Amino acid sequence: MGRRILSSKMFGIATAAFAAVSVFATGEAKAEQFVDLSAQGHVELSDGTKVELPVSQDLHGRAIKVIKVVGTKSPVQFKAGHVSNKAEVPALFINETALNLPPHVFRFSLEHELAHHKLGHITNIINAFFARKSLEERAEMAKAYEKEADCYAVGEMKRSGVLKSDGVGALFQGTLKNGSAVHPSRDERIEHALSCFKKAKGPALVRK
Ligand SMILES: [Zn+2]
After folding, report:
1. Which of 31, 114, 166, 188 has the lowest tally of Cβ within 10 angstroms?
2. Whole-number mean pLDDT of the chain?
3. What separation in Å is there between the alpha carbon of 207 and the centre of ligand 1?
4. Which residues, chain by chain, have CB under 5 Å from ion ligand 1?
């Protein structure tokens, strides 16, 4: 998703300890900071655009925390997972570098990651791991979930009136062209997202 960096986004469990310290190769230690954005209700992108955070719950009705990660060297820009060791607190981690993305790509990535929680993907993947499903089975699940999350995200954006069909392809510019073990190819994702866009309801019409 998103740019080159985004495309290496891992789908899976994030474990993040608050105020963890990363020791870099130089020996210099830099504290990673985790800022809970849920309370402030929006994210400000580097171009000044304010993106309102949807108030979201996962499939089990638990509020999803949106957490900005500052000071990490991780190339992952968006990740769905859980807060620290508390598996009961679903979270979406946003690397501070993601704030440089164009607003529509940022919004799409946000909705995509939230979808992994709302549709129960994270729980299912964890359960599949503990049920000792094979790597291949879990990779197939993950690929299907990527497309489901894309579908959900373009639907949400169409409903809120911020996406037209000719804008769908651009959302995938930074994704892996040939996909990965857990990601469908870019063309497959775009084709699927376009079919989802067509089926999704448009924004509510305002009565005159
Ligand atoms: Zn995903």
Report:
1. 166
2. 84
3. 37
4. 11, 146, 149
Residue type, 139: A
* Dist. CA 175–CA 125, nearest whole Å: 21
Query: Mind spelling out the 3-state secondary structure of the chain?
Result: CCCHHHHCCCCCCCEECCCCEEECCCCCEEECEEEECCCCCEEECCCCCEEECCCCECCCCCECEEEEEECCCCCCCEEEEEECCCCCCEEEEEEHHHHHCCHHHHHHHHHHHHHHHHCCHHHHHHHHHHCCCCHHHHHHHHHHHHHHHHHHHHHHHHHCCCCCHHHCHHHHCCCCCCCECCECCHHHHHHHHHHHHHHCCCCCCCCC
- Per-domain residue ranges of the chain: 4-199
CA of 108 to the centre of ligand 1 (A): 11
Place of tokens 């164009």: 102
CB 183 within 8 A of CB 151: no
Banded pLDDT at 30 (limits 50, 70, 90): low
pLDDT at 207: 53
Going by pLDDT thresholds of 50, 70 and 90, the confidence category of residue 205 is low
Cα–ligand 1 centroid distance for 44 (angstroms):
22
